Amino acid sequence: ESFSYSVSHDLRAPLRAISGFAEIIVRRHQSDLNEEGQRYFRNIVQAGERMGQLIDDLLTYSRLGRAGIQRERIKLDDLLKEIVMRMGSTISKKQGTLVVAEGLPPVMGDRTLLSQIFINLLDNAIKYHRPDTPPQVTVDFRNEDHHVIISVKDRGIGIPIEYQQKIFDIFQRLHPEDEYPGTGVGLSTVKKAAELLGGKIWIESQVGHGSTFFVK
Ligand code: ADP
Fold it and tell me: pTM of the full predicted structure?
């Protein structure tokens, strides 16, 4: 953890220099560059932005739980309402639906960790929809042995069985950036948050039919 923390910080300075100088060249010396040169510099700027996003996500991952875990009674229905409201415009832009079951129970947990879990799972459920079908996402729950199991279900592209464990490893992605953007840090953040709370996460998925992520 301390490794990824200092790497994230030490990577920022040279990245800022690379991106900053590339941007200056694009802005001030555009007329000195031919079409090919301009394209290369635009690629440098874009790659810099992508690397900045990777560093941000890596930082979120490494910071998770660092400040200690604040266990308190969290009303899951309020928390989910807040998160869903923030995602409202993304869902309506894609003409999707997101339904949260009534009566989600309160749990003992850490607000930041629980938020990270649901933000990332919902983000993915919305993002990985089939190209011809808008996202259809359902959040549901069931009680089992004094625990609550929450499910986030989508009818998206699904995940082949051989990758259903790997996707929880950091930076593991199954799609090129131009098809589905992302950094490959989301699910490892979810797993880490669930485990810090003494819980776990698992998945059921079928290619072409959708995925359901369970958090206990
Ligand atoms: P990111 O979405 O930034 O790529 P994640 O760690 O959140 O990274 O997810 C890892 C990979 O797992 C994704 O790149 C994608 O291939 C796959 N994945 C995650 N959630 C879903 C989902 N709901 N449906 C289909 N594939 C998914």
Answer: 0.90
